[in-house]
């Protein structure tokens, strides 16, 4: 199969799937589907109520620690480098930084859900 033939098949398949995705949802519009909330019950109160800052703090802490953990993902491949002691040193420093950050957040009360 040539490259041109594969590109034509890919383009046709993409166009067909896009047309189906635009056509299919409009077949049977439902009153529940057209409502702004699809959770099964009528909305109570205003949607503009302020959230507790704790939700945002926990989300930011999760993202921060999750991104720092992602730094450890290449570690198994880095062990095969000519100087694995450098890899172990950097990995230990990242884990130490994570541990210090976790202890700091714990002491500051950032992990306490209820006050």
From TrEMBL:
Keywords: Electron transport, Membrane, Mitochondrion, NAD, Respiratory chain, Translocase, Transmembrane, Transmembrane helix, Transport, Ubiquinone. GO terms for molecular function: NADH dehydrogenase (ubiquinone) activity. It is found in: Mitochondrion membrane. Its EC number is 7.1.1.2. Its main location: mitochondrion. The chain crosses the membrane at residues 6-24, 55-75, 87-107. It is an enzyme of class 7 (translocase). It is a multi-pass membrane protein. It comes from the Eukaryota. One of its GO terms (cellular component) is NADH dehydrogenase complex. Pfam families: Oxidored_q4 (PF00507). It catalyses: a ubiquinone + NADH + 5 H(+)(in) = a ubiquinol + NAD(+) + 4 H(+)(out). The keyword Transmembrane applies. Belongs to the complex I subunit 3 family. Core subunit of the mitochondrial membrane respiratory chain NADH dehydrogenase (Complex I) which catalyzes electron transfer from NADH through the respiratory chain, using ubiquinone as an electron acceptor. Essential for the catalytic activity of complex I. This is NADH-ubiquinone oxidoreductase chain 3. It comes from Eremias vermiculata.
